[in-house]
Amino acid sequence: MRSQEDTVNVSQLKTSNDLSVGLLLLMRTGYSRVMLSALSPSFISTLKGYTATFTTHTPERAAGVYHRESRTGKYQLTYAEAKAVCEYEGGHLATYQQLEAARKIGFHVCAAGWMAKGRVGYPIVKAGPNCGFGKIGIVDYGIRLNRSERWDAYCYNPNGKECGGVFTDSKHVFKSPGYPNEYENEQICYWHIRVKYGQRIHLQFLEFDVEDDTACMADFLEIYDSYDDINGFVGRFCGDELPDDIISTGNVMTLKFLTDASVTAGGFQIRYVTMDMPSKSGDGKNTTSQGKTNFLSGKFGIM
């Protein structure tokens, strides 16, 4: 029997504001080219409108679980379509147990999705008032009798292509997909850093070459001073000029890398290391390799 911390049963599904909460903690990849004869031509033509969300964590790789949603928005898939999307990637719908195994090593997505056997739910690592009803665990909507309801999907493929991840180590180097080769088109990758409470994250750009255009609307890297891509926006970066170092306000950061359907570039290497919280007298000061001030203001963290 599952404890209350492991499962949150939801009876007020259709009236809950939880359904409109933004997507959190996503790490995404491109597509395989497996064709499924069981799909209609019209549905096959839409498959490239979906994006994958892999989470990897050495060595567990988050049990091979990843989140799928439409590039045009949340909650677009019936059960049959969700199943087909996972199979298109060479995987299948994740079981409740696989989703829970991924959650236990940091997989957190605030978006309900289909699982195996027609079940719907989503994994919560950090409790919040607008996501998960303040609980930690799998928010479980149960087995849906109406398989035409539209949700996202949670797929399972332990051999899936790596793009993004959840990291808790004291230091790490991120690389764009395929680095040192050029990255591919139509990538959406999320890297999430969560270190010990009371520490900050020092982000340093080692190499950076992302398609340059006005306002970085084509390919870009975004940095968030938070555990998601909704709060704490720091900046959007493209081109080949190294951004300045960035130091977080707390113990979490999110990096989001998105590419469009044309033109690629060399990619990037980004290193982070942890550092102790500064004293009050030191707040607002920062020395970087470029000599600029990039301590982010405010203080917060996740235990």
UniProtKB/TrEMBL annotation:
Disulphide bonds in the chain: C86-C155, C110-C131
- CC terms in the record's Gene Ontology section: extracellular space; transport vesicle
Give all residue intervals belonging to the CUB domain. Answer: 163-275
Under the heading SMART domains, the entry gives: CUB, LINK
Q: Where in the cell is it found?
A: Cytoplasmic vesicle, Secretory vesicle
Query: How does it associate, per the subunit comment?
Result: Interacts (via Link domain) with inter-alpha-inhibitor (I-alpha-I) component bikunin. Interacts with ITIH2/HC2; this interaction is required for transesterification of the HC to hyaluronan. Interacts (via Link and CUB domains) with ITIH1. Chondroitin sulfate may be required for the stability of the complex. Interacts (via Link domain) with various C-X-C and C-C chemokines including PF4, CXCL8, CXCL11, CXCL12, CCL2, CCL7, CCL19, CCL21, and CCL27; this interaction interferes with chemokine binding to glycosaminoglycans.
Single biological process term from Gene Ontology: negative regulation of inflammatory response
Name one molecular function that GO assigns to this entry: hyaluronic acid binding
Q: Identify the InterPro entries for this entry.
A: C-type_lectin-like/link_sf, CTDL_fold, CUB_dom, Link_dom, Sperma_CUB_dom_sf, Spermadhesin-Link_domain
List keywords of the entry alphabetically.
Answer: Cell adhesion, Cytoplasmic vesicle, Disulfide bond, Hydrolase
Q: What is this protein called?
A: Tumor necrosis factor-inducible gene 6 protein
Q: Residues in domain Link?
A: 64-157
